[in-house]
Amino acid sequence: MKYLRWNFSLRSKPSGKTRRFVRLLVFVAGLFPASDLFPQEQSQDKPKFEVDLSEFQKEIDKLATKPYSLGGFAEFQPTLLGIDRDSAVSRVRFFNKPQGSLFDQYNFRLRLEGSYKKDWFSMFFKTDTLVRNDFEGWDEDTKLFEAYASAKPNANFILETGKKVMKWGKGYAWNPVSFIAPPKNPEDPEEALEGTTVATADYIRSFDGPLKTLTLTTALIPVYEYVNAKFGEPRRVNFASKLYLLLYDTDIDLMVLTGSSRTTRYGFDFSKNLTTNLEIHGEFAVVNNLDKMAINASGQGFRTQSDALSQLIGLRYLSERETTYILEYYHNGAGYSRSQIKDFISFVDRSYQTFQTTGDDSGLVRASALLDGPYGQPNVGRHYLYFRASQKEAFDILYFTPAVTSIMNLTDGSLTVIPELAYSPMTNLELRFRTPVLLGKDGTEYGEKQNDYRIELRLRYHFGF
Amino acid sequence: MKDRFTKLLLALSFTLLFAIPAFSLDGTAILKKVDANLQPESFESYRKLINIEPSGAKREFLLYTLKKGNDKIASLFLSPASEKGRATLRLGDNMWLYIPNVGKPVRITSLQSVVGGVFNNADIMRLDYNVEYNVQKIDDEKSEHILELKAKTAAVAYDRLKMWVDKKAVVPTKIECYAATGLLIKTLYFKERKPFDEGIVRPSIIETDSPLYKGYQSILAYANVKKRIVPDEVFTLEFLAKIETIR
């Protein structure tokens, strides 16, 4: 079982990489002395804080005359990865690399955002640059996440064109109705995604009565060689639409995507506060004639076409002690069955044995391509449970939020558990420390992933002009 | 003599009869006047929220706020950079938070706090008191009325409020906020009255402390409170990410 190997690797003597990583963590921890973390009794003779209203007014006046903004964040994320050398994914990824069971990785990220507005016209952009260093050396990747122009002739109409993220759905970890945006990483669902090049029009109306808001969104999604190339069949223009209603204090969305790049799909979602501290949400999606590719244990590929029905139901609860619980069940109608996942793992095992005995790596190369494609989606199975508990201002430390997240594949019982500490010791600086642990038997989804565990620290500094 | 006494008695009775409404304390009318004196029914404003920790460390958040009518309020965070672009929307009992990175609004509850500290979402997106509370009791002190308010529905963040109202200015000086269990959640102090739009004098600073956050203090300072009526459509989820464009 996966956790047994993990325990073994913890008992083994720390490598130079581990020592380097731990030294880095200790150094970072030293930057923030404990006195900053824990609240101190307020001194009785401490002068009362006074607000300087004239300074406040000057700050507002300066903002009022500024039509543009520029900002973003710089991020440093060292990560120590505990590799499961016997897992299917690591065999595919590292079969020809003499890599041990531990390696450290250093990620540097720069996110830039800017905007400009004039009357009813505005523009926005967001770029993302990731520089990574690990045992393979340096790597750099810059992406234009968003860049679009927006026009609002009046409050009822919003017209936009360019590259932007269209996130649909009410789920926290998964969004089966998100037909346009790329899938989120359920381990980090709040992270920004790369947008899609679209032209959109929103029509908004407000009413008195049970129906308070109606918004109709329509979108054109062109797919060409250099525009939305990953979206689907090229040289096509696709159409998507979403109708949003705030009806009886319930958010309701009905959505559709049609065109020739992807098969037609329909969706429905809702969200409602049942009480002041309990919210319920759900999503339902139907994908018509989903073309799915799978392989058997011999590596023989076959395609099937069938309708795929996906559902998600979730709750968000805030306790009196200000602990937030999120629970979601997700049925992925487009996912692989238990036997299909086992077949893929068997194919990898066979290909690995062939490589070891004959040096023929063609099976593993093919498996690698499949992991970059259909078998590499964040959750490839069919039934999942997501749970997250986070405690706001634990131990009376302002801006400190410990949390634990778990994602379980209900079909095979494998799971990941992610303890997390998030803290903002000063304005614009955010620290996050996480140690995702993957647990599962051989032949299960999480049991066959690349890592046994990760230890990662993220320092993010926001800036703005 | 008897006739004169009867006339005097009658005159006195009439005087008292008509004087009673003048002395009677109409709590609801006072509460409505308090609401009108605290903020216009529809307005825009800038607010600075300051969290002060026991160590003296402070963190400031600058918000732009739009309110319309009884049940619509939207706020946009302008600074610090880590919070810039976050926006909150309240439509009656419905509340949403938009975080630019997340890219879509998510429902939140009134008791949560989007910034941490003593103020919660219900404080930051407060509707008029008379919309959410009924006056249950009113006491009269030398220079202040003391109103005891009870939430109209269970969806309101605080079950009961005890409000001290300056008789002359008809603005609150202090509000104690209680849970249904009787637990004191926080106390709000209204300070530094100054003229805003059309010369109306309003408190420009609200301080709060809480027995649940010993040693912590939060302050909300108001500036540029101006009457502004924007279309209802501004208070919708689609517009939440675009409030900056109408500031």
Integer average pLDDT of chain A: 89
The arrangement of helices and strands of chain A along the chain is: HHHHEHEEEEEEEEEEEEHHEEEEEE
Rg of chain B computed from alpha carbons, rounded to a whole number of angstroms? 21 Å
Low-confidence stretches of chain A: 3-13, 33-45
Strand fraction of chain B equals: 35-45%
The assigned structural class of chain B equals alpha+beta
Question: Biggest sheet of chain B, open or closed, and with what strands and sense?
Answer: 13 strands, antiparallel
Order of helices and strands of chain B: HHEEEEEEHHEEEEEEEH
Secondary structure tally, helices of chain B: 5
Output the strand order for the largest sheet of chain B. 6-5-4-3-2-1-13-12-11-10-9-8-7
Distance between the termini of chain A: 51 Å
Question: Biggest sheet of chain A, in brief?
Answer: 18 strands, antiparallel, barrel
How many alpha or pi helices of chain A? Answer: 7
Structural class of chain A: alpha+beta
Fraction of helical residues of chain B: 10-25%
Name the shape of chain A in a single word.
Answer: globular
Q: Write down the overall geometry of chain B.
A: globular
